[in-house]
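Posting this for the archive.
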Amino acid sequence: MRITAPTSGLPRWPRSALPGRLAPATARLRSHLIELIRPDGTLHSQCHSRVLESALLLALLERTRLEPAARSRLAAYLTPHCDSPEPLDRLLARAALHHRPDPADLLDVDGFLARAPDFTGTRKRALLHAVLTLLGVAPADETPAPEAFSQHGLHTWARVQVTAVKTILAHAHGHGDRMVDPRDLKLMCSTQRPGTVWEANLLIHLSVLHALLPVPGQYRLVVEGVRTVLQHQRPDGGVPFICDEDTWVTATAGVALHAARAGVPVVDLIARRLVALQHPAGGWSYTEDVQLPDVDCTSVAVEVLHLAGPGAYRVPLRRALGALHALRGEDGGFPTYLTGAPSEACMTAAAANALSTQGPAYRHEFETALAYLASHQRPDGSYPPDWSSSRLHTVSRAVLAASRHPRITSCSPARRIIDKAVNLMADSQNADGGWGQQDGDASDALSTAYALTALSTQNTPGHAARGAAYLLTQQRPDGSIASIPDSIGPRPFGFTVPALADVFALLALGHLTRRIAPAPRRIPSVTSGDRGERGIRESPARHRAPRSRDWTALPLQAVLTGGRDAPQPPATGGGRLPRTPRPRPESSSWRGRRPGREGRNGRRSRHVSRCRLRLRARSRPGSGHLRCGGRCRPRSRPAAVPVALRRPGRSPGWTAPCRAACARTRRPPRRPRAAEAR
């Protein structure tokens, strides 16, 4: 997801093509995100409450008759959702509060499950059936297919979830004593630890508690599990799907902050935090203390470490790339969690962006990933459902990966990916300039940010200008971005992490601002006494020498902002830059001669020129002296110059004593070799 390389040959866009307030809006959003970063480098953003887990917890508290105060807060949270525009939330809230179900509120199960990948359809249908069974609104004539409970090829989360669903449905149909396997019971009990939510997943935690409640001898374990859940009850009374996904948010924010020119210190701080969270096998999970790594977090972390410095993080990068390579499927694609699982377009696009950082070393894996993306792209340019409810999420990441191919020909997979995606975004742009999650939906900031990130790789601004104007209208006074959520987990159930809207919006704005042609800066030129004062000339900002800073002397906020909050030295008056006077020679043999000019004998003084160019202010260890380095003349001894002889305003390596010492150096006569002497 990082910015396009400067050597890609993309033309610069004129500043007038994009909204004039783009730069200040980017700066406000960048400052807002930097303020969210903790001193350890984590961007913390709590997951909001969700109706699904809140309804399950309320049903569990009513079954156990525990925590009446918590039940009241849960009921207060669910009451407004009885009129939610989302059909599933409306159905679950009314069922949990024991409202009589309205036939108009029945969920279109097939339409809802169509938002999940095909290979997960049977398992998600069984999960939804178990939830509705616990709430008492499940259809009486529906029974999950037997393959919904198969654990073949499933990762640990899915195995526990399938086991809990199977146990819940077995007890609901009166077959719990016969169908609960001792191994299943042991697996579910292993996830219950007092004070700890297993894998930070509250949905699985609550599902296991519902499954264990009818089992004899497990009541005390259920009571401890309820107390653990209530530790994560939000102030609004509800409970979330997961505790947080700080690792994923932090890694994505690192890429976005780099694109928005946040500075080296903040990106390096995030990179060091990611290195501390890396698993021994080389991957990353969505948050701390979660044992199951995934391709998405690992891929984005690779990009952050690459941006922070591939040399400094060479070892973590090698381990992470090895973890990605181990998950690669035979079709060239990448799954989300487990080797051998079906490949997914979103994960393949994420891995392709990570592999593109390595150049020729992973060229084969990168090209096969692009071939997989091209073969699974739909005719309209979209991809199968992924971990976002917006179809432009995978599209934007696939376009970024395809644009990094070194040779994009007219018939290459990369060109096909880009052309279809650009046509999709051109056809689906709304009248207000933004994009919606699906065709015909109202515009939202997250979908618009995905589209702008992809369009930043094109030659002309076109649709990106109108999209940027819409995105800026969604910015709050504090710099944050207002948007509907689009995260999904487990698919197709949506949840909300508020910082993701800010992160992806900053990523899009950073991509756009990098394409704008730099404005010329008017700076005063260095004046010369013998030629008079020059006029003001225009010079690009990149010609200015970088100003060194002592980062250890600045507070954390000044370090994260690149020192922009630190006090600056006063500017010189009169529009002139301070001029360092040329040192005058003290030896009479140097009077009237300048380095690089002809001497008395008419020959160019090469020795003096070399001495002038190669003098260096080096500190001899333990002596406190400066020396020229001994390179001003072959086989000459370096002349030591006391530090006390240096004067302010003079070049540290061009002092009169050092110049005189070098002048006194003579080339020793050439000695014949031993063979010539004989």
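Residues 527-554, 564-667 have pLDDT under 50 and may be disordered. DSSP finds 26 helices and nine strands in the chain.
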